[in-house]
Amino acid sequence: MKINDFVIKFANVNGSGSASANSLFAKAVFRMGVPVAPKNIFPSNIQGLPTWFEVRVNGDGFLGRREGIDVMVAMNPQSWADDLASIVTGGYLLYDSTFIREIERDDIKTIGVPLTKLCNERFTVPRERQLFKNVAYVGALTALLDMDFEVVKGMVSEQFKGKEKLIEPNIDALELGRQYSLEHFDCPLDVRVQASDAVGDQILMEGNAAVGLGCVYAGATVAAWYPITPSTSVAEAFDMYCHKLRVDKETGKKKFAVIQAEDELAAIGMVIGANWNGARAFTATSGPGISLMSEFLGLAYFAEVPAVLVNIQRGGPSTGMPTRTQQSDITACAYASHGDTKHVLLFPSNPSEAFNFAMESFDLAERLQTPIILMSDLDLGMNEWTTSPLKIDESKDWDRGKVLDAEELNNVEKFGRYLDVDGDGIPYRTYPGTHPDKGAFFTRGTSHNEYAGYTEDGSVNVRVMERLLKKFNTAKTLVPKPVFGQLSQSSTMGLVYFGTTDIAIPETMNLLNSRGIQLDTMRIRAFPFCEDVVNFINDHEQVFLVEQNRDGQMRSLLISECEIDPAKIVPILNYDGFPITATCIADMVSKLLGKQMSGADAGNFAAE
Amino acid sequence: MSYIAKPKFHHPKLPRNDLGLTRRDYEGSMSTLCAGCGHDSVSAAIVEACFELNLPAHKVAKMSGIGCSSKTPTYFLSKSHGFNSVHGRMPSIATGANVANNELKYIGVSGDGDTASIGFGQFAHAVRRQVDMLYIVENNGTYGLTKGQFSATNDRESVGRKGQENAFECIDLAAMAIQLGASFVGRGFSGDKDQLVPMIKAAISHKGFAFIDVISPCVTFNNHVGSTKSFEFVRDNEHTVTATDYVPTKEEIKIEYETGTTIDVMLHDDSHVRLRKLDADYNPSDAAAAMQHIMRYQEQGEIATGLLYLNVNDTELKEKMNLVDAPLNALPFSQLRPGADALEKINNSLR
Lengths: 608, 351
Fold this sequence. Notes:
The complex is a heterodimer of chains A (about 600) and B (about 350).
Chain A: E1 2-3, E2 5-13, H1 18-31, E3 36-41, E4 50-58, E5 69-74, H2 80-85, E6 87-96, E7 109-113, H3 115-122, H4 126-144, H5 149-159, H6 167-184, E8 191-192, E9 203-206, H7 207-217, E10 222-225, H8 232-245, E11 257-260, H9 264-276, E12 281-285, H10 287-303, E13 307-313, H11 330-334, E14 344-346, H12 351-368, E15 371-377, H13 378-382, E16 384-387, H14 406-410, E17 442-444, H15 458-478, E18 483-484, E19 493-498, H16 505-514, E20 520-524, E21 526-527, H17 531-538, E22 542-547, H18 553-562, E23 569-573, H19 582-592
Parallel strand pairs in A: 1-8, 2-5, 5-6, 6-7, 10-11, 10-12, 12-13, 13-15, 14-15, 19-20, 19-22, 22-23
Antiparallel strand pairs in A: 2-4, 3-4, 9-16, 14-21, 18-20
Helix pairs in contact in A: 1-4, 1-5, 3-4, 4-6, 5-6, 7-8, 7-12, 9-10, 16-19
Chain B: H1 38-52, E1 60-64, H2 68-71, E2 81-84, H3 90-100, E3 105-111, H4 112-116, H5 120-129, E4 133-139, E5 142-143, E6 149-150, H6 173-180, E7 184-189, H7 193-205, E8 209-215, H8 231-237, E9 238-240, E10 242-247, E11 262-266, E12 272-277, H9 287-299, E13 303-310, H10 317-320, H11 333-336, H12 340-349
Parallel strand pairs in B: 1-2, 1-3, 3-4, 4-8, 7-8, 9-13
Antiparallel strand pairs in B: 5-6, 7-13, 10-12, 11-12
Helix pairs in contact in B: 1-7, 3-5
């Protein structure tokens, strides 16, 4: 019996309207108080190719991706064979029995519902017949998995509030599948959803929406962007929330500007221009956009202009796998642009943290007068996550950094834009238009002295470069600290990870503990690395570093920036474009430690 | 070579404008361009225009890209903030700055390489968005800083310094700007200050994207016989189609011309532009006709100069985007951050 512990996968054709039915299913489980992790596995295409929607249902909150499908809703003949093969022994196949299909496995249970036939009988409009097939299988699942039908019906009514005409046919379609299942099968199955309070006050939200909303709460007024998967929905969420929260009620005019730029170069240029003028501005992009923005990132670093860049990482290199996830832009972002250039990176692990980090990015950008890159990924950005509710500290004001106003300029004898007055490497800036006589300076990417004047004097340039390094060291004290998995050191070995790998860690630790392996854990949340990060690694004989890329990019960064012995950091890598699984991590660690493997297919292994 | 500051003392009897400022107050540091460079004349024209317009210098922002022309913002308005960005990308910086605060006057200075080649895309999009700014191209048909390669604004029959002929079609930036929807398009010659200063004044007062293509000969690399961007060639082949008089708000138009030969246009700040039609059949409010006129001159090997196109009825970027009146960079915390209540509502909608 699998109660609140299974993976269900929907295999569809993209463009067939399955997405809303599938998320209806996931949300219904969530509404029943059971934690869910829905994942869209979609092609870079608009219509006709295979697309999948995977939902992990887990009462213990183990919501990392898991291999092995317990229930497969196979609606796509193109991927039929592979879909069947992915079902675990004893698992279920739900399919449209209007068509005769060859089922070559006798170790699984099949549930044939004539979805096409049922919908063709009930509906007359061709598009409706197609769309309601999806709703009908959700109806079937409510019976098969013992879901609260009232919850599902309630959600349909909510979804079509204002379009009441659509409620009735949707509920009819749900009933079609439900009644057929109740009549023909022994419902419920031994895979079930049971109402629970494990969700608590958590919400179900996409990371990109959380970032977009975080930018609203950070007071960003300018978003300049160029459409690119999987970051597009960041700008769209910002726009959507701004339309709700930032339109002047009397005049209908906007207190925000969203500019769809001509390319990524222009997008980051606009962001730099707006920040230079004292408006909080950001852009969102993905790998290819990072490559294009690199020149401007170097300018912002050297001329010390704040900027916030959200990078929703996808599979690289080049155009790569635009609809798959990876953590493979770390070195490209840390050192984006030519010359000695370094950038501050933040690594959120869930939507709630992405919301907080989005807000924090603007404070850091203005405090440090440099670009801040928020390193999300497709898994976090484009999937709905069960995550803690969003919170703000209402008593906290923004940190606008060191900006001199007209009055303060009056008290300055001679303003020097790049003077290190406070000894922290961070100079004072002025906004254009502040003072009739004082504070004007020339922002430039050419080598400059402390007064922003052009110089070719090498010693002056060395002085400026050293100060920039000092500022980068100051950043170490300001960025989010790592999160540790234990209060005091309990093992000689550690597990280090960052970003979306976090979701697989509780289950990984569970697996490892069951095999008698104890590890201390550390989740890195920012670059440059603060002292705590270095200390953790130094305090352990060996650490495993989990990354979703081929080259161990975070490992390289740790080795080169913190002068750590490479032998000490053992890479655990997965880069097949799917979110890393707990089994994959636990098996690799076990194998490296010479322990018994679980025997399960651990997905993609890195070279040993 | 570092930049050289100009000494700030000046004669006590230098003329002052309404703000009590002298021309010296609008100057910048010493130019490091070649002696006789056309660009220095353009800088001087900008200084003169800003002085005559009584502009507070700190309410002006100077933007540029990379190249000889893009260095020039250091040589005027030292009390203004400046932004010397990367090659060909000044338009995006100016667009972002403008959206953040359009109460400043933006003067962008670029070159033919910076605008017609590496920055062609950004230029086109700044024009079509009607960014409220003056965009000047100091057009010398050559890459000066890298010692004299052809640029894309070179005429097809033009000959390089070493006798090589330019095989490719030239990009006429003024014609491009009209086609892309700029609302103010002019062409000047760095050697003709009388024409340039009123045109710059009108362009600064104009609301929307104002473009001036200034033929500004490169004395070092493109001033030889056979070049169509040399002082001599431009002087001989320049054909002024309209002469511009700029009339500030408070002054009345005094000079009378023969009826039908002038057009008066009121700008958004209530100042006036009076265009004297030197070509009787020229209509600067008709984009298609203006393009045809420019092209006809080009076919004859001549350069049409003057205010070529003016449209005061189009809206600029901020209006197109329906932004609030106050600059976005001046909106307070209280207006920008929704409260915890709004956030709780959002949380609830996600349960």
